[in-house]
Design a protein that fits this description.
Layout (H helix, E strand, L loop, with lengths): L4 H24 L6 H20 L9 H16 L3 E3 L2 E3 L1 H18 L3 H21 L5 E10 L2 H13 L3 E12 L2 E13 L4 H9 L6 E6 L1
Antiparallel strand pairs: 1-2, 3-5, 3-6, 4-5
Membrane topology: Multi-pass membrane protein
Organism: Prevotella pectinovora
Family: Belongs to the MgtC/SapB family.
């Protein structure tokens, strides 16, 4: 059995489009793996599937073996996006996104266009719509960097955060010397209740402390 050039083009193009759609969402969220990574994963998975079906003629008895290798092999790429830092794991959603993107690519490669499209819609719905509808559930991790004139200012800030329900998991303080004098640079690792815009919420919260200056907020 041979596939026409039109059929092959449709399979590969749809994998590119659907994988790219998930990648754009991840790009919008400023995650490690973005548009290029996701569309390459989907396109490569589809191509592996097409090759396993049509590239070896009738001698290949079990074309699903290649698909099985894609499923296990994508785990290495996903593992590369997972970061363990300061007792917190990051990148699990991105790794899971790459895994399901590979499945979508395989579905396109086998010609299951409807299943691939439905899966893509479900992924985007789960990542965006559901996340927006229930932002109050769960918690999110925030890395906050700021400068302060004294250790007492930092202690008061941390005490106020804990009093307000923020979980200060860890913090690091360094002394900095510049031409303008000495100051302290603090890096806080927080766990806060999930909200509609966590970064802006943290910035607004920090505005009440006039003696500190925010350097960076990473959610």
């Amino acid at each position: 059995m041979e596939a026409s050039y039109v059929d092959l083009t449709i399979r590969l193009s749809l994998a590119l489009v659907l994988g790219g759609a998930i990648g754009i969402e991840r790009e919008y969220r400023a995650k490690e793996a973005g548009f290029r990574t996701h569309f390459l994963v989907a396109l490569g998975s589809a191509l592996f599937c097409v090759v396993s079906q049509f590239g070896f003629g009738f001698d290949l008895k079990d074309s699903s073996r290649v698909a099985a290798q894609v499923v296990s092999g994508i785990g290495f790429l996903g593992a590369g996006t997972i970061i363990f830092q300061k007792n917190v794991v990051r990148g699990l959603t991105t790794a899971a996104g790459l895994w399901v993107t590979a499945a979508i690519g395989l579905a396109c490669g086998t010609g299951m266009y409807l299943a691939a499209t439905i899966a893509t819609v479900m992924v985007l719905f789960g990542l965006e719509v559901i996340n927006a509808l229930i932002p109050q559930l769960g918690s999110t991790v925030v890395d906050l960097s700021f400068s302060a004139p004294s250790i007492e200012s930092i202690r008061q800030l941390i005490a106020k955060m804990r009093h307000d329900g923020m979980d200060v998991r860890s913090y690091e303080i360094k002394e900095r010397r510049t031409s303008q004098g000495e100051f302290l640079e603090a890096n806080l690792h927080l766990k806060v209740k999930r909200g509609s815009n966590d970064k802006l919420r943290v910035i607004d919260y920090m505005d009440q402390f006039t003696d500190v200056t925010i350097s960076a907020v990473e959610v």
